[in-house]
Amino acid sequence: MNLPTEINAAQLTYEAYCQHTGWKSLASGQALPQWHNLKPEIQAAWQAASVAVTRLHNARISELRSDALNLCWAIERLPGSPQQTECSLAASNLHTKLNNLLPIQ
Q1: So where are the chain's domains?
Q2: Is the pLDDT of residue 5 over 60?
Q3: Cβ(10)–Cβ(47) under 8 Å?
Q4: What angle do CA 49, 33, 45 make, to 5 degrees?
Q5: CB burial class (10 A; 0-12, 13-18, 19+) of residue 14?
Q6: How far is residue 64's CA from residue 59's CA, in Å, rounded to a whole number?
Q7: Which residues on neighbouring strands pair with residue 24, listed in sequence order?
Q8: Which residue pairs, CB below 8 angstroms and at least 24 apart, start in 35-40?
Q9: pTM for the whole thing?
Q10: pLDDT digits (tens, 9 = 90+) for 21-65
Q11: Dihedral (CA of 79, 83, 85, 89) sign
Q12: 32 — alpha (psi -120 to 50), left (phi > 0) or beta?
């Protein structure tokens, strides 16, 4: 997904919520303001929420990357066959894709 650099995760999250609710508050029914019209403390709350979701996402990607690496090792221990080579390549590609989603730090 290519987003303009000025759109951060908090704004993206807030605007997804707004679109889902038709730009109306589910609590009060009032119209929701555009991101740039929100008070800084409301933007900060959305930022905190987006950080929490990002951490969860990153933890899950790390777990899946580890699972993919374990799969690669397990496949390498199988007796040689065309299927083993195909499975090994698929597991390796999966591991690479997960690394690209969340580079090792």
Answers
A1: 9-101
A2: no
A3: yes
A4: 20
A5: buried
A6: 9
A7: 31
A8: 35/11, 38/14
A9: 0.62
A10: 999 999 999 999 999 999 999 999 999 998 888 888 888 888 888
A11: negative
A12: beta
Amino acid at 1: M
Rg (CA), the chain: 21
The two three-digit tokens of residue 79, written as one number: 């007796």
Amino acid at 92: S
Enumerate long-range contacts of 11-19, CB under 8 Å, 24 or more apart.
Answer: 11/35, 11/43, 11/46, 12/50, 13/46, 13/49, 13/50, 13/53, 14/38, 14/43, 14/46
- At 67, the amino acid letter reads D
- Please name the amino acid found at residue 20: H
